[in-house]
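Exercise 7.
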Amino acid sequence: MIKYPLSENMPPELIKSKTGKSLADINISNILDGKITADDIKISKETLIMQGKFASEAGRPQLNDNFVRASELIEVPDAELLEIYEKLRPNRSTKSELLEIARKLKEEYAATHCCKLVLDAMEVYEKRGLLK
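Solution. The predicted structure, written as tokens, is:
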């Protein structure tokens, strides 16, 4: 079984960024030469799924679920992620707003696990009187 951190326990060419750069490509020389951008240091969906698999194998299924949800959010723009985060706080959204977030996650980003999380939160907020 692979142990954390992946950067120390896996070949660097197997760990890819969102843009496909390998961990070996991300070095000070390439940064200083302008060959590495901010997007090049963002984690890839595949790396998150790999981490989830290792967490699951280590008996941590909830951590795996977190990695799966995180992998679904890779394509969601940062500003939109922050907006969703804010809207998921108690008393910040109506039921219809949360339903719209869930719909958008599912239909536009194929983020089915994240969609379910939003719907679950909505149900709890509704039961506890935490909707706007």
